[in-house]
Amino acid sequence: MSLYINPTLTSPDTTEYKIFRQQWRNPYNVYPQCPASTLADLTIWQIDYLIREGGLKVVYVDSLGAVNCANPLHGCGYIDETGAQQLTFPIRGTREYVKRLYALLHAPGTNPKTNFLWGHMSARTSAPINAFMDFQCSGEELETVISENQNYLELYDLDAYQCYYLNTSGVMPMLLPNLGRVGSKEARWMPKYNDQLLALVMLHDSMLWVCWCDTDYILKYYKIFDEFGLKDESLVFLSYRKQKAVISPEKDVYISVYKVKNRAMAVVVNKQKAARSVTVQIDWKKLGIAPGAALKDMRTGKALPKGDSATVTIPSYNFALIQIGE
Questions:
Q1: DSSP code for 25
Q2: How confident is the model at residue 24 (pLDDT cuts 50, 70, 90)?
Q3: CB atoms < 10 A from the CB of 258, how many?
Q4: What is the pTM assigned to this prediction?
Q5: Do 58 and 205 fall into the same domain?
């Protein structure tokens, strides 16, 4: 069972809202309530009840972020030296709200494999707040540029993508795509745009929220990845930033490798506007696989000639998958 909540919204029809409206409200923003108010206390009490009595295990927090407010009834805002009302951002109050949610879901005796807290924080990412999230998704900050160009692989500089979506703090980041949500509606179903999402995610071993994209198309590839052994506990990921086992000297070609026992999957990404034929060189010793192992184009299912190299044709801003070994 999973629950959707928004820390800045509550129904105006509830008895509690009618009683506490003045104390909860944020009249200075499009988000009408403030999580620094006692609305947080009511929400935590309700979720605690659902965990104990309803078996709630997962909570999704939307619009997570400190929204500027100046309601003095719950401690926001201040009057400056000129007498003007100034707004403040309740970072500490929102952090406490998330911390309390985390404590409920991860109380002693709960299962960390089934209980988790995840949230959506686009454009207002704040480390003190998302520090208590298990998963954090973002991506809506790109809505303006996506409406003009839905090519994620072209839009994202790889350094910027790494900053946004690689796990270094214990919080698992997740890319929230927006194909067809803004701009061309047809883009959601076009393979090239979905391929660009997959290229970014597989190149970095990062997470994708499979929504606002062609779900069936994406899941088809995740099935291929699972069959290869992406969930195997012995899996080793070799990032394009460091690995030297499978390489190409060509400009704007990036290669990451997933290795499971005696087989490997090379994700070969073409980050150029032109389609091209790419040859990769295999260092069997560094890869840890016996020379002469079978090679296969995993996207077509066709065998590739055996040898110390493999050549594949990759469309503009797209990727190839080469399996090395059985």
A1: B
A2: very high
A3: 22
A4: 0.89
A5: yes
